Amino acid sequence: MENIMLSVKDLKKYFNTSSGTLHAVDNVSFDIQKGTTLGVVGESGCGKSTLGRTVLHLLPATSGQIVFNGRDISKVSKRELHELRKEMQIIFQDPFSSIDPRMSVEQLIAEPLQIHKLARSKDEIRKKVHEVMDIVGLASRLANSYAHELDGGRRQRIGIGRAIILNPSFIVCDEPVSALDVSIQAQILNLMQDLQQERQLTYIFITHNLSVVKHISKDIMVMYLGCTVETCDAKELFKKQYHPYTKALISAIPRTNPDPNHKRILLKGELTSPIDPPDACRFAPRCNYACEECHRRAPALEEVEPGHFVACHRVREINGL
Amino acid sequence: MGEQLLAINDLEVRYVLRSSTVEAVNGITLHVDKGESVGLVGETGAGKTTTALSIMGLVPNPPGKVTKGEILFNGEDLLKKDDKAMRGIRGANISMIFQDPMTSLNPLMTVGDQIKEVIQLHNDFNHEQALQRTKEMLELVGIPGDRYNEYPHQFSGGMKQRVLIAIALACNPKLLIADEPTSALDVTIQAQILELIGQLQEKFGMSLLLITHDLGVVAETCKRVMVMYAGSIVESGPVRTVYDNMLHPYTIGLFGSLPNLDVDTDRLEPIKGMMPDPTNLPTGCAFCDRCPNATDRCVKERPVLTEVEPGHLVACFHVSDKEG
Amino acid sequence: MAKQRKEYGKSQWLMVWYKLCENKFALISLAIVVLMILMAIFAPLIAPYPYDEQNYDAVMVDPSLEHPFGTDQFGRDILSRIIYGSRYTIFIGFGCMIASGIVGVTLGILAAYYPKLDNPIMRFLDVFGSIPDMPLLMCLILIMGLNLRNLLIALAIYYTPGYARITRSKVLSLRNEEYVEASIALGASDRHILIRHILPNAMAPIIVRFTLSTGGSILEAAALSFIGLGIQAPAPEWGLMISQGKQFLSSYWYMAIIPGVAIIILTYALNYMGDGLRDALDPRLNH
Questions:
Q1: How far out from the chain centre does Cα A72 lie?
Q2: Sorting pLDDT into bands at 50, 70 and 90, what band is C101?
Q3: Which positions ≥6 away from C124 have C-beta within 8 Å?
Q4: Which residues pair with C212 in a beta bridge?
Q5: Burial letters A271-296, b for 16+ CB under 10 A, else e
Q6: Phi and psi dihedrals of C188, rounded to 5?
C-alpha cells in the first residue's frame, strides 16, 4: 500500500543468556500508516522496548523483515544506516539518563546536526538550534544551561528537540512521559501531538500506561511476553476487548470514577519466564480460560472482526462470536 | 464522624541546606479516623513523603526539621516522644510501606527472617511462635509459607511488595502508611496489591494513609482524599464529593491533564508552567503563577482551607465566585 | 551561593569548582601544590644560592638569616637545594603521571572497545600489577640503566595498569548509558561517542587517580633515590638529600629532616587535593 510508513513482518529478537535463549520479541508483525501513531502496550518484560529498538536497528534483529517507506531495510550497510538515522528517531523514557550531563542544552540539540554535518557554520547551527528550542517550548535563556539544572519536563523537551532537528519522518517514543508528573505529562503529550500534525510524523508510542496510549494512538497493539495478543483501532479496543489478557489489563486500570458494580479481573500469578518458552500460548499459565490446547500450541493472530486481530484459541467461545 | 486516630495540626517541616531552606510542608492539618482510608495525592515535590516521614519520626535530621505543629496519635503528640518511645511505636502501631520494593529488602537475609525480625522486635515471642506467625503472615499476603527460606532476589517485584506488606502488618498496626505502594508495579500486579491492601485493611480494621500521584488509585481505594500542592493541602473531602465537584484550580488542572478512558478528548488541558521552587515559595498562594483565575489578592495573601460544603474543604479565594 | 545557583549555564565542571572552593583543606592543598610548581619553574629566581655552590667557610651551620634552613656538609645552602630539588620532584611526579596516564587510558579504551584485545592487554598489565612496587621498580631500573629518563619510564610502567583498569571499567559502564545509546540512535560514530560522551564523563575518576598517585610516585622516586637507584648526586633531589643527611642525623638533623618535611607537605597536599576532588566530583554528594 502507498500509505504505509513502516511495515514489520515476523520480526524476531532473541538474546542468548547463560540460562537459554530469551525470546524478547517473537514473530511480531504490524503496519503503520503515514502520519499516524501505533501504540504498543504491555507490562514490563513484554518486549515492547526491544521491539522499538530492533525496528531502529539499535539492536540487530534475529530474523524478520522491516520495510520503511517502501524500502526493505532489514539488512543495511553502515553507511545506509547512518543516512537512515536522519529519517528514524527515538525519544527515550528517562529524561535523566538519556542526556549527557556534561553538555549544555545548545550542545545537546546541536549534536545531531554535527553528526550529520548538516550545518555549514556555527551561526547556522545556533540559528537552527534556537528554532527547535522555540518549537519544543524551551526558552532561549536556557541555551547554556545543563541538564542537572532542569526539571524532567524540560529535559524531555530537549530529548524531543534532538529527535526532531533532523526532520525525521518516523519516531519511536519509548515511554516518553512515564517518568513525568501528570501535569507535565499532559504538556509533553500535547507537544508531541502538535508536532505530529505539523510535520506529518509517524510514531510508535511504547508505554505501559493505557490511558495515555488510548489518547495518543490511532491503532493499538497489546503485547504479552514477546508476542502480539491483540491489535486493533484504539477507540475500538477500549470498547471491546477479546483477548483475556487485554480484558484483565483494561479492567485493572484504576479509574477516577469507579463503577461500584465493576469487578476487577484479577490475574493469578505473575509473568512467566521468556527463556526458551514452550510452543504454547504464553498467557496460558495465568489465563482463566486456558484449556489443553492452549498449553500445546501457540495461537496465531486471526481477524475476528474487520481490523480487529486476536491471538487466542478460544476467542470465539469466550466472547460468543 | 468516627474517632480520630491520627490528627496532624499545623505541621511545618523545613530542610535547611547550606544556601537555602526547602519549605517542604507548610502548615498542614489533617486527620485519619479509626478504620478509615485516606488518600494523599500530589505530584513530585508536593511534600507527601515528608508528611509521612514526619508521622513516623523519620525525617532525616539534619537537614530536615519539624519546625511547628503537632502530630497526635491516639491523643498523644508523637513529636514530643523520644527516640526509644518512637521505636516502640514504629512497626507496632504505625507501619509504613515504601515505593520501591526492590531496594526495601535486605538482599542477604531470607524474606522469612526479615518478617520474623519485626515480629520478635515488638513481641515477646519465642522462636517457634515467631516462626508460626511469620508463616501466617506470608500466607496472608498470598505467598506460600514454604517460601520462608528464599532470598529477595528470588521474588518478583509484586511478590516483594507482598513481603513488605507482610512486614508492615506483622504486628497488627493501627495505622498503615503506604507511600506509592504500587507505582513501581505493573497494572495487573497493582490491581492484585491494591485488592490485598483493601482486604487486609477491612480484616484488621486498621486505618490507611495512602500516598500516591494516581487519582485513580485513590478513587478505588480511599473514602477521603486530600490534594497536596507545594507543601500545602489545597483541597480535601470525601472522594466522590471532591472528584465530582472539584473546586481548586489545581485539582481541576490535574484532572484536565489526565487522559480520560471513557470520554474521547483530542487535546489535554494541562496546567501551564511548573511547580514553584520549594526554596523560594511565593508569599501568596503557591499556585498563583499557574492559576488561570489568579488576582492580586492571590499573589499577596495565602488562602487557608475553608469548608465550602459539609466535609469539603478548599484553599482558594475564588471558590465562592465559582460556587455563587 | 543561592543566587549563583539560580542562574542557568553552570557547567558541571564549574559546579565542581564551587564545591571544591567550599572545602578549605582541598583549597589550601591546591594552593600548596601550585606554589610548589611555581617554585620549581622559577627556582633560579627564588633560590638565594646556586644549588651546587660549595662554601667551606659555612659547613653544616645552623639555620640563620643567611641560610634559613642551614647548610650541608659541603656548605651548600639547604633552602636553595630544596627549591631546586622541587624541579626533580615535580618533574618526576607529574611526568610519570602524564606518561602513565596517556598510555594507561589508551590501553583501557582499547581493552573496553575491542573485546579481542581486552584479555591480552589486561592480563599483560596484571603481571605488572602483581609484583610489589619496590622490587618491580628496582628490576626495571637495573635492566634499563640508571638515569632520570629510565626512572621516569619505570615509574610510568608501574602506574600504567591502574589507569588502564579504571579507564576500562568506566568506559564499559558508560557505554551502557542511555545517552550513549541516544547518540547511536542519532547516527554518531564510535569516535564521536568516545570523544564527546565517554571521555568527558570518564574524566572524573581519572583525575582523582591522577592527583592521588602523583603523590605516590613522588614517594617512590624519593625512596629509589634514597637507596641509590634514583637521581644521582650532586643533584638536589629530596630523597637523595635525606639519604645524604641520614649519616649526620644525630649531630645535624636539618639535612635529613627538611627535605623529608618537604616531601610530606607535597604528598599530603596532593592527597588532600585528590580527596577534595573526589568529593567535589561525586554527584551523589551534590545536595
A1: 21
A2: very high
A3: none
A4: none
A5: beebeebeebbbbbebbeebeeebee
A6: -70, 145
Residue C192 has pLDDT above 70, yes or no: yes
List the one residue out of A315, A294, A293, A313 whose CA is nearest residue A304: A315
| C-alpha cell, A151 | 526539571
Spatial CA neighbour of B216 closest among A184, A207, A251:
A251
Asked if residue A203 lies in contact with residue A275, where contact means CB atoms within 8 angstroms, the answer is no
Contact between B24 and B56 under an 8 Å Cβ cutoff? The reply is: no
How far apart are the C-alpha atoms of C85 and C156, rounded to whole Å? 20
Q: Is the pTM of this model over 0.90?
A: no
Using the Cβ of B259 and the Cβ atoms of chain A, whether some distance falls under 8 Å is answered with yes
d(CA A304, CA A320): 11
Cell of C94: 607529574
Nearest to A240 by CA among A298, A310, A312, A317: A310
Query: Running DSSP on this structure, what letter comes out for residue B54?
Result: H
In 10 A of CB C66, how many CB atoms?
Answer: 12
SS3 letters across C29-52: HHHHHHHHHHHHHCHHHHCCCCCC
pLDDT band of residue A32 (cuts 50, 70, 90) is very high
Bridge partners (DSSP) listed for residue A311 = none
- For the stretch C213-237, pLDDT in tens is 888 888 888 888 888 888 887 888 8
C-alpha cell recorded at residue B312:
469539603
Q: How far is CA B300 from the centre of its chain?
A: 30
pLDDT digits over A163-185, tens only?
Answer: 999 999 999 999 998 888 888 89
In which order are the strands placed within the sheet that holds A37-41? Answer: A88-91, A170-174, A202-207, A37-41, A219-224, A227-233, A308-310, A302-305
Nearest 5°: CA angle at C177, between A202 and A103? 85
H-type helices in B78-214, by residue range? 83-89, 111-122, 127-140, 157-169, 187-204
CB C107 within 8 A of CB C159: no
Q: Is A317 exposed, middle or buried (0-12, 13-18, 19+ CB in 10 A)?
A: exposed
CB-CB neighbours of B203 under 10 Å = 10
Q: DSSP string of A19-57? A: TEEEEEEEEEEEEEETT-EEEEE--TTSSHHHHHHHHTT
* Nearest by CB: A145 against C8, C185, C196: C8
- N- to C-terminal Cα separation, chain C: 13
Rounded to 10°, the helix C78-113/C238-245 angle is 130
Instruction: Count Cα atoms within 13 angstroms, Cβ side, for C285.
Output: 13
Closest chain B residue to C6, measured at CA: B277
3 state SS of C234: coil
Which positions in chain A touch B265 (Cβ < 8 Å)?
A: 215
Pairwise CB contact (< 8 Å): C287 & B17? yes
Q: Does A144 sit within 8 Å of C8, measured CB to CB?
A: yes
Report how far Cα B291 is from the mean position of its chain's Cα atoms. Answer: 25
Q: Which chains form contacts with chain C, at 3 or more CB pairs under 8 Å? A: A, B
Residue in B closest to C5 by C-alpha = B19
Q: DSSP 3-state assignment of B323? A: helix
Residues B230-255, mean pLDDT to the nearest whole number: 92
Specify the pLDDT at position B321: 63
* Owner of C-alpha cell 516483594: B160
Q: Which chains touch A (3 or more CB pairs under 8 A)?
A: B, C
Give the Cα separation of C140 and C154 in Å (integer): 6
Which ranges in chain A belong to alpha helices (H)? 48-55, 78-87, 105-115, 122-135, 152-164, 182-199, 210-216, 234-239, 244-251, 292-296, 315-319
Reported confidence tier of residue C3, pLDDT bands at 50, 70, 90? very low
Is the CB of residue A8 less than 8 Å from the CB of residue A30? yes
